[in-house]
Write a structure and sequence with these properties.
six-stranded mixed sheet
Length: 228
């Protein structure tokens, strides 16, 4: 879905205000008829806590939710409509029987379908056997040009962060919420909880807010190019 000139202007103003003073939080705009609708998926939840921090044991699901909420605030303040797959520590499915993870993932995809979303952004944290691996990585829906363009915009925004330890490239992702989605979709792996430095950053509220802003800026850049 393309953004109208009015919404592009709102987003531009938001960006200039945020860059000019990080403490300034503009009020959310009234929903526009042609507003972009973004589903934000805070990965995992409930008994599925995801990966855990190497030093603190913090659950991925908790950090995912904090970043997702921060992103929601920024997108709404920029004039977009946001639907969250979850706003509490609980999972969507809630059951514990056989195949509960896939059922939970299916429900997340259905959220995007039912609300006729324009974008689906899933927030996660990463883990790797090499504890030196760091940084934010974006994955996109295979064979979907818009998903790839969005992922590349968000990845560039991550790479531009002053704390970015390395230059990463957006990658194709073979994941359920990407493969089974009917809308343009990305997964943002915001850092490695298996790395002590990344874990420390991810536990910091200010840094999580910067991550959310990086995703927001990537979305704005994506639509700016789409409307160029």
């Amino acid at each position: 879905m393309k953004l109208s000139g009015v919404i592009i202007l709102i987003l531009s103003v938001f960006l200039s205000v945020f860059i000019g003073g990080a403490a300034t939080r503009p009020a959310a705009t009234t929903k526009k008829k042609d507003s972009v609708l973004v589903v934000i998926d805070a990965g995992h939840g409930g008994i599925d806590g995801g990966v855990t921090g190497v030093n603190t044991g913090v659950k991925e699901s908790d950090i995912n939710l904090e970043v997702a909420k921060a992103l929601m605030e920024k997108l709404e303040a920029g004039g977009m409509t946001v639907v969250m797959t979850r706003t509490t520590p609980a999972s969507l499915y809630g059951g514990t029987g056989k195949g509960f993870k896939e059922k939970d993932l299916k429900m997340r995809v259905e959220v995007a379908e039912k609300c006729n979303a324009d974008l689906f952004i899933s927030i996660h944290m990463n883990k790797y056997s090499d504890e030196n691996r760091r940084g934010a990585q974006v994955f996109y829906k295979i064979d979907d040009e818009a998903s790839q363009n969005l992922a590349e915009s968000v990845q560039k925004s991550f790479n531009d962060m002053k704390e970015a330890p390395r230059e990463c490239s957006a990658l194709r992702g073979d994941y359920y919420v990407l493969n089974n989605n009917t809308v343009s979709s990305i997964i943002c792996e915001c850092g490695f909880l298996s790395n002590a430095e990344d874990e420390k950053l991810l536990l910091d509220e200010t840094y999580r807010d910067e991550l959310a802003y990086a995703v927001f800026r990537g979305v704005v850049d994506f639509y700016s190019r789409e409307n160029a």
